[in-house]
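User: If you would, consider this record:
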Amino acid sequence: STLQWGRREVRGGLGRVRERGSDSKREIVNTENIDLNRVTPVTVPIISNIVPKQEVVIEQLTVNNHKSDEYAERLTYRHGNVSNNDNTETEDQETKKSYRTYKMNIKKLKGEVSSQLVTKENQLEMVAKAVTMLHHLPYKQQLAMKDVKHKEVVGRLKQQKKIAGQVKCSPSRILASPVTEQYRLKDQFNVMTDIQGQLAVGFFVGGKRDGVVCVEPSTIRVIKDTHKQVASLYQEFIRQSTLSTNLYLGESMGGLKGNWGEIMVRSNYKGEIMVKIHFSQMELQEEELDKQKKKLVDFFTKSGLPIVSLYLAVEDDKTVRNCLLLGEKTVTEVLKGVPMLLGPDTFCQVNPACAETLLGLVAKKVNYSSSKTLLDLCCGAGFYSLHLASMFRGCVGVDMVDTGHATKSAEMNHLDNCTFLKGRVQAVMPQLVGDMKVLGGGISAVLNPGRSGVHYRVIQELRRLPLLDTLVYVSCQPEDSQVFYNMMDLMAPDKKGTPAKMETNPFSLVEAIPVDMFPHTHHCEHVFVFRR
């Protein structure tokens, strides 16, 4: 994709590996016929035709007060052990005490689900406990528990001698979600047999000891009724299908392999629904596959549900290809008046009301200027770029999946200063950093990775960008070791013996604010503001 900021031109390179979504390591390709054997890696300039920095007057946007894992592999870090700082000993002790309470509460709740035998009578309550662990607690109590978790993360950072003095804030109070019921715009449902041995579509409950069963989502309060209806419809379809259902749970759990797999349901502000069903082709011939596609389309068309897009993700030995069977390639979501195109694999925040709260917070903290560039890393649908573009000279978004949709969204919103690149962030960053240095001007960044953070090289490259003065790191799982060390690496001093030309200035953590994007669950978004 190519967009110009005046005479400045931005180009994106090729990337074909999935970064968000499921844990599958298989490639995701579009519905067009592509001979992968003829595709060769091409190195192209990310930013070319660069001119020196110039003042650009842009009308500012008024903003009121974002996993699947990003990468399949995990990186082993080598850092020192946790140690106490004498100046914060009392605070550290309070943090440890509060965190034990939070950790013990979550462990207890998980233990209750895993140890209790699933029966016909209790299955609906069991699945509600498994998916929405805190649903039985008053919302204020849920917020208090998440506040404790957030306090522990900041407290743990303060305990690190390596970054002593770089954590310059106390944890802020959590921002509540405006909506707590039926807020999810996207859901992924599994397939398996239920407690009575019938095929079911819903969520897994149970474990190795007593076995795993699938329970329908009817009692889960955060899921929209229309999504539950689609799950029920698909359940009816696979029960009467002549093809088998994939009951394989991996090497440790076993199970029979089959054709019909999990289903994704996504809806937008108008209630329009997109559906994607996973299908393992196995030994099935193309002629028979076409017949199954037609049966699926006919079945869903007769449902009366507002399904405007239906995909079949067909898996063969080498790839998973998204085949559009019905309707449009995308659905349009609108947040704070800005339309965004979403494909079947596009990442976007699942709680739209709370996403607006998150957007307002990031807009306040990102240190914007009409002479600066915004780096939107792990951008997904382009949420931050599309909303904040008028506050910056230009925006560059990077993600593994569906950046083409983000580009079209920018065009739809008449934004000529947004560019979206497809590729692994750590693969794109070195050249992007080099081009940013030539381009000149200040830089701010938003980093919103999957649950396991980013590769350490991304952090290294960000530190080597002297024009970058503000980084907003958004994480839904800051307790993950990789995310924790991402933040450590942002603030740690250079290693001894670092060549002068490689020296960098560390960041300081100046604010840490939790945002409850996922009411009734033990998850939450955490916004960490780093400056230097």
Observations:
- Confidence is low (pLDDT under 50) at residues 1-92.
- The chain is about 30% helix and 25% strand.
- The first strand starts at residue 2 and ends at 5.
